[in-house]
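Protein modeling request. Please complete all fields; requests missing the sequence field cannot be processed.
Requester role: graduate student
Desired output: 3D structure, token encoding
Chains: 1
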Amino acid sequence: MPTDPAATATPAPTAARPHPARLGLGTAAVGRPGYINLGRDADLPAERTVDALRERTHTLLDAAYAAGVRYLDTARSYGRAEEFLGQWLAEHPQAAAEMTIGSKWGYTYTADWQTSGVAAHEVKEHSTAVYDRQIYETRTLLGDHLDVYLVHSVTPDSPALTDPALHQRLAALAAEGVRVGLSTSGPAQADTIRRALAVTTAGRPLFTAVQATWNLLETSAAPALADAHAAGWLVVVKEGMANGRLAGRNATGPDTAPLRTLAARTATTPDALALAAAAAQPWADIVLSGAATPEQLTSNLAAAGLRPTPEGLAALDAMAEPAEAYWRTRAGLPWS
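Delivered output (336 residues):
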């Protein structure tokens, strides 16, 4: 198993000493033909065949590894993302030995490779039956390349926080050396994280990792993430660009004016600055890029060479929305 990134995380990078290893690559945008990132119509091949998205995924993985990225994120519900990643790891044993691989279980992909006319693209269930099925599927596709396994999109009412039988299964996985944790979503992320911090099995904390949404528009989970970091958890930031709302092509309204202004002043791009702001949080170990093209990945990874000043970060604070409003907007984003 590669070195735990939580144990080797470095302070926010400077322009002189970039640290791309603090940035990771997520595969949600390229493992299936439909997702909710803005602008995907222009990002993916016109024919979103399995082969086309496999090729795009492998191209991104090649570029990420070459740039110094050492954390990769996937999930059972990301279409065929685990399959694509597992194939790449098998073809690149040296890279595989250096990577930390995180995946997630608890959602089942149901869109059958369609982008429209789908009642539900994924269905959530945090039961022991789903865990048993999906850990088998994950290990079939990733082999022994599983370092972090998260319950996908836990909310305060999830049985993942209360089911003793599930906890025993997760504890057994942790005993094998896999970091067990959860990802969070929704306006109650902070409550979910704090409840998870209190979960124990045999007198020991069960969860030791969290992947949470934090970005300049949605900052509500920050205090709870600081608590998780203080408890020794691996803290991974997802959706640092708010599903594309903070990309330069979409960050055009008055709500993102501070980001555009600071990016122009510092000769960088809104996406890189948004990710750099996430990486500057003292509790953040890994910040994920959700790039769908090599060009986006290059732009995102420029965040590794940025260190926003306290004054710059303070100026960006004005962008934060109430959590309920943010998640209401996110729920309305179209799958495309």
